[in-house]
Specification:
Length: 296
């Protein structure tokens, strides 16, 4: 395969030549925003909502993106085309750009755009069949008035600290609570439980990113006639649920069978999850912005 081509500010560079300045405030301060997007079957899945969320995140941190949404969409599609990525993962990053040493973002002249089209696997394949064992961690999700979790910012320290706690506890993922002690989300995924026949997920206002996979699953469940509620939940609700699963662009849909040592339901992957996974896989076949030459 020819060398990977990475988009930086209007040009494509080979992987070895794709470099950004050490004075970029994305590197110095985590000052910027990003999206993780997937391509399936030659189409960029849910491209429009990802682009919308990127611009909303940028708006919230007062960052002006120097291209239009249509141009940004074209950058993503072209990155996939040039790298022959029909099924893969796209990392789209907008940083504050090159500035001085010193926080002042207004000294950064122009935001920088990077797009990497590649592949990703977040969890070992077998965990998708047997389900995850996860724990609640002590690190609370960021307070929304400090750094709103609805912003997909380049500063993932909060999530990384939680991920470290999980790994040190011998598991792969962490349930994060908000400062009130209610369930928010996992480190890079939203979470759902099935309780009394209804699917429940925390509202974004409880300290979660409004996940695009999450929203797709909500739509699919409602189409199936499953009642879905965006409702505040506590760990009690998780422990006493019949099923649980996580959603995210990286993780896709992955079942959870144990939380803090409590088996969820029967402690095995449940039927509602299996049905939604099949529907999601079907959706990835039909939804998405076609990549020229790769789309069936
Ligand atoms: N919450 C957080 C904190 C996330 O970072 C999600 C929820 C799910 O959102 P989407 O829109 O993807 O359904 C995310 C997304 C990675 C990785 O490398 C993480 C995400 C996406 C892709 C890759 O760990 N997180």
């Amino acid at each position: 395969m020819s060398e990977q081509l990475i988009y930086i500010d209007g040009e494509f560079f080979t992987k070895s030549e794709a470099k950004v300045s050490v004075f970029d405030h994305g590197f110095l301060y985590g000052d910027g925003v990003f999206e993780g997007i997937r391509a399936y079957h030659g189409k960029v899945f849910k491209l429009e909502p990802h682009i919308e969320r990127l611009y909303d995140s940028a708006k919230a941190i007062g960052l002006v993106i120097p291209v239009t949404k249509a141009e940004m969409s074209a950058i993503v599609v072209e990155s996939c085309r040039r790298n022959s990525i029909a099924n893969g993962y796209i990392r789209l990053v907008v940083s504050r750009g090159v500035g001085d040493l010193g926080l002042n973002p207004y000294l950064c002249k122009k935001a920088s755009i990077v797009c990497i089209a590649a592949t990703i696997q977040l969890y070992p394949q077998e965990l998708y069949q047997v389900g995850l064992d996860i724990v609640t961690v002590a690190t609370p999700r960021n307070h929304p008035e400090a750094l709103n979790p609805r912003i997909k910012s380049l500063n993932y320290m909060n999530n990384i600290m939680a991920k470290m706690e999980a790994i040190r506890a011998g598991v792969q993922e962490a349930v994060m609570l908000n400062l009130q002690g209610y369930v928010a989300e996992c480190t890079g995924d939203n979470l759902f439980i099935l309780r009394n026949g209804k699917l429940v997920t925390p509202p974004a206002t409880e300290g979660a990113l409004e996940g695009i996979t999450r929203n797709a699953v909500i739509d699919l469940a409602r189409k199936k006639g499953i009642e879905v509620r965006e409702e505040r939940m506590s760990r009690f609700d998780i422990y006493t649920s019949q099923e649980m699963f996580l959603t995210g662009t990286g993780a896709e849909l992955i079942p959870v069978v144990k939380v803090d040592g409590r088996a969820i339901g029967e402690g095995s992957v449940g039927p509602v999850f299996k049905g939604l996974l099949a529907d999601f896989q079907q959706l990835t076949r039909v939804d998405g912005a076609p990549i020229p030459g790769l789309s069936a």
